[in-house]
Structures are given as structure tokens and as C-alpha cells.
Amino acid sequence: MGGSSRNAVGSTQRYRVTIIGDGAMATVCALLLRTKGHNVKMWSAFPEYAGHLTRTRENTKFLPGFSIPAEVVITDDRHVALSDPEIIINAVAS
């Protein structure tokens, strides 16, 4: 997905990002950040749904029709999700 992000001085910077959540907002964040070249992990509190997302690479429940890139790590293991992120995004409903 060859995109990259540029900071204020124009240099390319890629971040390790963990997104907390598995809904529409979490999926949109994962898609946009991965498109920009960031390393993305998405954490789900629901093991069965994390497995579904991993197998189908689509959030059929909350955002059908959009493919989740294979490079996005989807996990229900908080230790995996929180291993060394530079940015954490909370994308769960309040």
C-alpha cells in the first residue's frame, strides 16, 4: 500500500499504531492508517469476532464491503495488541 505520512517538515514517518476496538470506526482508522503506510494492529475484546475478521478480512457486521489489508494485525490478545505501539487509538463506543 505504498502511501506514507509526512510531518510538518516533509519527512516520511511510519508509526506502530494499535487501535482498540473492532467496530466501524476502528476499521476505518485501520484502513486509513494502513493506506498511509503505518503498521497497524486492531484489538477486539471478542475472540470469535477477531477470528472472523482475521479469516474474512472484512468487518461484515459494522462496515461491510471494505477489505481489511492482510498487513493489519487483528487480535483478541491484549499483550499482542499492546506490544510496543507508538500510538494507541481508542475507537470503542462510549
Describe the overall structure.
By secondary structure, the protein is an alpha/beta fold. The protein is 28% helix and 30% strand. It has helices at 24-35, 47-56, 78-81, and strands spanning 5-6, 12-13, 16-20, 39-43, 58-59, 63-67, 73-75, 87-90. The chain has a 4-stranded parallel beta sheet. The chain has a two-stranded antiparallel sheet with strand order 1-2. Strand 3 (16-20), helix 1 (24-35) and strand 4 form a beta-alpha-beta unit. The N and C termini lie far apart (32 Å). The mean pLDDT is 92.
Helix content: 25-40%
Low-confidence stretches: none
User: What is the beta-strand fraction?
Assistant: 25-35%
Structural class: alpha/beta
Q: How widely separated are the two ends?
A: 32 Å
Biggest beta sheet summary? 4 strands, parallel
- The dominant shape is globular
Rg, Cα atoms, Å: 13 Å
Q: What order do the SSEs take from the amino end to the carboxyl end, as H and E?
A: EEEHEHEEEHE
User: Kindly state the mean pLDDT as a whole number?
Assistant: 92
